Each structure stands twice: as structure tokens, then as C-alpha cells.
Amino acid sequence: MVEVLVLGVLAVAAASFGGALAGRPAEPFREAARLLTTQRRVTARADVLLTRIGVVSLPVAAALAALVVPFGDRVAVGTRVGVVWFNAMEVVAWGSVWLAGWGVNSAFGLVGGYRFLAQGLAYELPHMFALVTASLAAHSLDLRAIGHAQEGLWFAVWMPVAFAVYLVSAAAMAFWGPFDHPMGDDLAGGVLLELSGPDRLVFLAGRYGLLAAASAVAVPLFLGGGAGPLLPAWLWSLLKTCAVLALLVWTRRRLPVLRMDRAMTVAWTVLIPASVLQALVVAIVVV
Prior knowledge:
Blueprint: H1 2-21, H2 27-36, H3 48-66, H4 82-103, H5 107-138, H6 143-148, H7 155-158, H8 160-173, H9 197-222, H10 233-251, H11 260-286
């Protein structure tokens, strides 16, 4: 379970780094303290149970995804289908966001939830092709085996399209940066609009948790796992995870939010054909 705690610390560090990029490094901690002391707001005819399930299950999904992430040769839950498990937890996140938007009985919250489902349907196919490409090259669905298969050459080097698609889909998975439309200003906050107090804090924590988990999975998939000179394998995994996470956090204030229809157009007309072509090239080489 140490690996899950490490990713939790990285999620907090990501929030602090995001605040630092905005010139307010302590702002996330002040906001967390404020939300903990703020009374929950409940809208008329809200389904409180569904809302709470949606809010709580988001960080739970992130924590469960982190169970299969290896740091060097250490992993909380060793499984031969780690890639499948990680992808399944993303689907749990879909349900979490939609339930949070549906349960509050707010038009803006509901539209935000449906936006995330539409976004998920668009990014999930290229995301799966990126995962399958790395698995195909390693002949395994075990994240540890995929990391070990990159001795001498990282998959990010000889399958850069799959790596780029994975990073884009990782941001979409955490509705982050250019894919922040489910919480867009045009919806007055979307799924977050009616969430307040501890509910809002837990939901945001889950979002950062998803971002940290996706960053950590990128390391065994494309960056050689714990491979590296001098330092122990777990430390290399941690450093690489921090680098990917910092890159994703940096994009939040550097790239504009894509309108939903444009995001879906890019996914269907660019990301899917590119990821399929990359998978085909890798299949020809390794099979």
C-alpha cells in the first residue's frame, strides 16, 4: 500500500505545483482548509446518496488504479492484467463524474456529467489503442513485464505516437487542461457547481489522484519503468512519474480548453487513426 500513499503525496504535490505556476503555491492548502470548514449545500430534490457515491468513488477509483502501478519491482498488487485493471478504473471514474453531476439535480451539473461521458467515449478508443500498443510490444498485460521489455530502448522512442496519444488521453481521463470542459465556465463550473464543503474537496482530490495515477502508469508503459543508472529502480520510477505529472500540470494554464465538439472531432479524425497506424507498425515489427 506504500505505492498508493506515494501517489497520494504526488497528487498533493501536483496541486501545490499548479498553485505555484499561478503564483500562489499555498492556495491549494488554504482552499482545502476552507472547504473542510464549509457547510455542505444541498439543492432541492437532490439525490444525496448518488451524489455522495459519485464524489467518494472518484478518489477510490484513483486509489484502486494505483494498486497495480509498479515502482521498480515493487507493486501493491501484482497481477498479470494490470493494464486491464487500470483501464477498468477509468470506467469507474466515468460513472463517478456522471453520478456527481446527476445527483445534485442541477441542469449545469447534469450537462457537465454528460460532457464527461461524451469526452470519455471520444478519448477512450485512442487511449485503449495506446495501451494495447505497449502491451503488444511486450507480449504482456503486466505493467512490470512491459517495463522490463524496454531494456535498451524505451517504447516512447520507437512508438512516439502511442506515447503522445497516451498523454493526451491521460489529461482527458482527469478532465484536465484542454479537456476541462465538464467543469467549464460556460456551465458555471459544471459538475462542480453544486458541490461544496468536503464533497467538493474529495471530488477535486480524486481528480488529482487520477492525474497522478495516469502519470505513474506512463512510466512502465513507455519510459522504461525503473530502468536507469546509479539510482535504485523505485527512485527512477518516482522521478519519471514526477516529470510526467509536472508536464501534465503545466499544460493546464498553457493550453486553451477545447470546446467539446472540437475535442471529439480531434479524437475521431486524428487520434484514433494515428493510434491505429502506430499499433499496426508495432504489430508488423514484433509479430
